[in-house]
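Field reference: sequence -> structure
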Amino acid sequence: MCIIYNIHFLTDMAGSIVEDRYRMLLHIRGIVLKKRIILALFAVSLLISSLFYVPVMANSGQKTIFYIEDGVSTPYTTSANTVADFLNEHGIILALRDTLNMEYSDVLATGSKVEVKRGFHVNVSIDGVSEKFKISRNTSIGTFIRLFETEKNKKFYYTGSLVPILVPGDTVFFRAFREETIKEESEIAFETQKIETAELVIGTEDVSQEGRPGKKITTYKALFLGDEEHSRELISEVIEPEPLPEIILIGTAQPTPTPTPTQRPAPTASSGGSGAGASNAAGFSYSRVYTMVATAYTAGPESTGKSPGMPGYGITASGMRVRHGVVAVDPRVIPLGTRLYVEGYGYSIAADTGGAIKGNRIDVYMEKLSDAYRWGRRTVKVYVLS
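Structure field:
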């Protein structure tokens, strides 16, 4: 019996120990489970708080600024970063002559003041005719006049002060200028040039080129008030024609004796001319003599096709002005500038040419057309002076 009792006792004790351990295990598991639940709840709370994190951060960009228009201030809570963003956000548009106290790119901060001053119209009276013109606030009359004249592209007459600041309802009174284009002509005197030449005898001179004054045309833009000229502005100056200088040739050559009527040069060659050596049989030295057909011409239109006042009138092919003693030759026979003696005409200089003067032909200059007709056409001796 004792043994059986002990076995039951041991059995009960072992079961009690197992039960206690089981309960302890359950208790431990419960603690672990609670911790897991707590950790799970903490994780969920973190997740939930993270969902609200972005809006909270976004709300941190909000700022309160003040929008002022024509002196009236209104607070705004905005997330706009720049002035341009704020104006676009609220549909605020600036028109011509409106002013803004900040740049569009300026960054906004809490307390920023965005101020817009709207432009306004003033009355403008021009010789009693009224119109309106928009300006910015704090615009002086002087600035207004500059803007108004620039837009109208013309000048106006104003007699008041330029300093006062214009306000809505003001009227500015103008008088309109009458604009005229004025042209003035003035004469430009010509110069006189004197040139020495061995083609003329000492003590003589010849006007090789007549002087001609020039003309200057000056154009102005003039402003009139009524019939009184107020101001003028130079537009252009044109010189047309240019002054033409007077050219006077001064003789430097020693005089050559004039042959007497009884002296006649003795020809030593045929009509084609002679060339070897020199002769002074007639009282003057010559190196060659030609027999030529001589005609006469004048400076007029009958001979040259030119009338007084026309360009080149009275000017020879060599540039010398025509005068008695000037003859036209064929330069292939007698070079220009050659000093000659023409029978029946006198001492001459080859200074001109002519379309019909070819070969052994010569054209002598006459001042009068009647003298040229009287000369006619004749055969003469032409001496090339040494």
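Note: The two ends are 194 Å apart (CA to CA).
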